[in-house]
Amino acid sequence: MLKQVAVNEILVKNNVKVFGTGQPMLFAHGFGCDQNMWRFIIPAFEKQYKIVLFDYVGSGKSDITAYNAEKYSDLNGYANDILDIVTALDLNDIVFVGHSVSCMIGLLASLKQPNRFNKMIFIGPSARYINDQPSYIGGFERKDIKELLETMDKNYIGWANFLAPAIMKNPDKPELGEELAASFCSTDPVIARQFAEVTFLSDNREDLSKLKIPALILQCSDDLIAPLEVGTYLEQQISGSTLKIMKATGHCPHMSAPAETIELMSNYLATAS
Amino acid sequence: MTFENEILLKQVPCGIFACTEDGVITMANTYCSNLLEYEETQLIGTNISTILTLSGRIFYQTHLYPLVKLHRDAEEIFLNLVTRSKKDVPVVLNAVLATTKSGTAIVYSFIPVLNRRKYEDEILQAKKNAEDALRKNVALEKIKQELELQQKELDKQITLLTFQNKELLQLGNVITHDLQEPLRKLMLFSHELLSGELSADEKEVALSAIKRSSQKIKNLLLNLQEYLSLSTDSSEKTSVDLQEVLQYELQQLQSLHSHIKVHAEIAVLPSIKGCKKQLHLLFHQLIKNAFDHGTTDNNLFLVIRSVIVKENLFNSLHNRYEYIDYAKITITDSGPGFDNRYKEYIFDFLKKLHPATTSDGFGLAFCIKIVENHFGNIKADGAVGIGATFTLMLPIDYVY
């Protein structure tokens, strides 16, 4: 067991939020946002599950001083943070829900401590974003990713402004709590740039077949970042996985089509052994 | 609205367009269409990705859409739009999540910022030049590499030193306690013998006690000698197929314990770089441990799993990270298990949870020593009545 001081440190570092009781459901946000992106999904599960939310170091309200460029130069750095949270809260039998790059981060974490995890739900996952012809289609050419990173550099000045939106009151939007308004997806631009590089240059194809935990793959119909071929590839590589093609389009069905996302998740959780 | 105002609105000097949340464009004003080289209504029904560069599309999916959806608006976003003839147009853009009769729509307004981009390009170029200059500084680069190597060495040394300190403490215990007890018996019984006051039967008892104690000392010294030889072992590190090592040791132990029925589920183990002799001893001891402590009614249920994961090679230095491949191997028996309070204790010299067993209490000490020699680690987890799991983490190819 970890000492209470160490536990608190981890919970502050990753801005961990826990509520509800039952089997733990751990939500991991994707690149570019923070735990707020789950707020359309959570109400459907908080009565049955213990909801665990967090922000990656450098995102949302995490402790930015804990950022270490070396540690986070690899998705394993983020995966180890997830395991730290899991250990700090002593979570077992976890339903892991990841979006985008977090799917592979969750996969890496589950390979290290498989006994902690019960089911994996991957929303818009990709094992590798860059094509590796002829055997693999990831959706992008290397030059596209280079262009993206250049754009991020170019937008650096703008991004600093964009990614840390001013804290404001929202009298005209009472549905947004004050706390929410304070931290919309705010991310440090330098960290976002490195996260983008680590994400879009990652290649986890070899790790897929190591996963022995049941997995649901939610794939949008028209997802630029994770095209259909990627979903099919993942289903083939992960034994015991279920692929569901959603009616929803885009890369963020949990925000654009929460009802469909919730339905597919619930059905899977109800039927998967 | 007056007709006059409508005419004016049609000529506003900024681009305006609207999309569904799925990204389908439902409206685009004249300025927008003209700038992007489309006919007045041509953009309607197309996807927003039509007018975004590839990186702009990623940016839209990962940042802009989530922001507008959660925040209901976004301001001063710098993006590149792309015209019909594939020319980039840098724009600054505002967006708002609007409520319509049929649901929600995202409305965007933007103005091109061609000049601003020139300034930005210049600033970035200057920044890049400065970074390049730093990167190309050969001397600095060399020192950095040297520092890196030295830090790796330092990390190894600190780890080793920490381990050796623990070893010293344990050796001290052996000398002050475990060796003293049989020595005291030796002295006591030899003193009695020399006194000449013992009967023939008593002499017999004294002699056999002397024999037992001498044997105990001999065993202890032999084990210590073997243990210490692991520290000075300088044999070459080669690629060792752990699958072969495991199969061999399992067979050896099975033939020694023919009364035990083994039910094994064994994954494919990788090859790692290491000392073959030591790795044989490691697996011998771990499997022997399962034969000795993991059986129920002469049945040994053994599950051995292996997976390659990436972990930080630095053990002792904080804030240094380099991820390398490790073989993570778990050896689980479903025997009587042990109380998890003792999960560290059992690796110490001469520490046995079941004093009655014939093992000499050095097996797991050998294991931890060998694992340390290979810059890995080992841990045990037990639950009474459920079984025990030993987890090995061994670097696949850590040059040392």
Textual characterization of the structure:
The complex is a heterodimer of chains A (273) and B (400). In chain A, 38% of the residues lie in helices and 14% in strands. The radius of gyration of chain A is 18 Å and the shape is globular. Chain A has one domain: Alpha/Beta hydrolase fold, catalytic domain (Rossmann fold). With 273 residues, chain A is α/β, with parallel strands linked by helices. Chain B has 400 residues and is α+β, with helices and mostly antiparallel strands. Among the domains of chain B are: 3-118, 2-Layer Sandwich (Beta-Lactamase), CATH 3.30.450; 235-395, Heat Shock Protein 90 (2-Layer Sandwich). Chain B contains ten helices and twelve strands. Chain B has helices at 3-10, 30-35, 54-71, 114-135, 138-178, 180-195, 200-232, 242-256, 276-293, 363-373, and strands at residues 15-19, 25-28, 73-82, 88-100, 103-112, 238-241, 261-266, 271-274, 299-312, 323-333, 377-383, 387-395. In chain B, helix 6 (180-195) packs antiparallel against helix 7 (200-232). Chain B is elongated, with a radius of gyration of 37 Å. The termini of chain B are far apart. Classes of the chains: A alpha/beta (273), B alpha+beta (400). At the A-B interface, helix 2, helix 3, helix 4 and helix 5 of A face helix 3, strand 3, helix 4 and strand 9 of B.
